[in-house]
């Protein structure tokens, strides 16, 4: 019974590995409104990473349910996150760069390799998290799952959005900017709100409540494009409330 939470955590890794398989496979592409292509594999991979995020959010509850929290579980969680929210989103960014440069006959693999910066930053972020016990109360730097989901949402935004949005997402300069900014946010020491509840008072959770309201409104207004909007709101709300251990 004690291994059930760890097996549940491994579902995160399973979703991440299968997502990579779909993201990288060559197949018939879906045409979006702007003319650039979003493959069905990229869309499927993004959905699988969403499933991985759900598992990642619930694994702590499962561990507490079976009273089986352990150091082993913590390590498995970080290692699974490295694949699902580091490597897999990095491959999505790689594929977006490939598509973005599809009209450039002189494009080489070197032009796509900056996408690897993303998983490197994610692994750095996870290693730092494992060594810093204060991050049980709040985060230093953007959490890897939030970063990974933002990258994973880009194909869905390009596929379902307007022609202008499609062209924007497939612009290499935009993709490079996304890679640099999100990677920097992950490895930075910016104090970021932890979405885990330490208590259930309104005062202790006003930041989470505000973020939830913003997220709901963003989803209703922007649909898939709400993901990067919520990410920006997450960082801004964190900077406003400046979470730290003493405030918990």
TrEMBL record:
A GO MF term: phosphotransferase activity, for other substituted phosphate groups
Gene3D superfamilies recorded: 1.20.120.1760
GO cellular component, one term: membrane
Keywords: Membrane, Transferase, Transmembrane, Transmembrane helix
Residue ranges crossing the lipid bilayer per the database entry: 7-24, 44-66, 78-97, 109-127, 173-197, 209-241
Biological-process GO terms, alphabetical: phospholipid biosynthetic process
Keyword presence, Ribonucleoprotein: no
UniProt record similarity statement: Belongs to the CDP-alcohol phosphatidyltransferase class-I family.
Protein name per the record: CDP-alcohol phosphatidyltransferase
Source species of the chain: Niabella ginsenosidivorans
């Amino acid at each position: 019974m004690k291994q059930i939470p760890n097996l549940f955590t491994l579902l995160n890794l399973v979703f991440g590995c299968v997502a990579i398989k779909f993201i990288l496979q060559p197949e018939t592409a879906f045409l979006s409104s702007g003319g650039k292509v979003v493959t069905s594999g990229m869309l499927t991979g993004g959905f699988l990473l969403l499933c991985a995020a759900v598992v990642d959010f619930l694994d702590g509850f499962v561990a507490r349910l079976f009273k089986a929290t352990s150091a082993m579980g913590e390590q498995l969680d970080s290692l699974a996150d490295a694949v699902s929210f580091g490597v897999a989103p990095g491959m999505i960014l790689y594929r977006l760069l490939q598509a973005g440069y599809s009209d450039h006959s002189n494009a080489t693999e070197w032009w796509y390799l900056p996408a690897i910066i993303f998983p490197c930053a994610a692994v750095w972020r996870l290693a730092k998290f494992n060594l810093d016990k204060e991050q049980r109360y709040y985060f230093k730097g953007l959490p890897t799952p939030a970063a990974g989901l933002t990258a994973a949402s880009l194909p869905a935004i390009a596929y379902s959005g307007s022609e202008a949005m499609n062209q924007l997402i497939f612009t290499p300069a935009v993709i490079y900017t996304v890679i640099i900014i999100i990677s920097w946010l992950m490895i930075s020491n910016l104090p970021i709100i932890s979405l885990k509840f330490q208590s259930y008072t309104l005062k202790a959770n006003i930041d989470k409540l505000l973020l939830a309201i913003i997220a709901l409104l963003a989803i209703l207004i922007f649909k898939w494009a709400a993901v990067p909007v919520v990410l920006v709101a997450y960082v801004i709300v964190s900077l406003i409330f400046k979470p730290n251990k003493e405030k918990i």
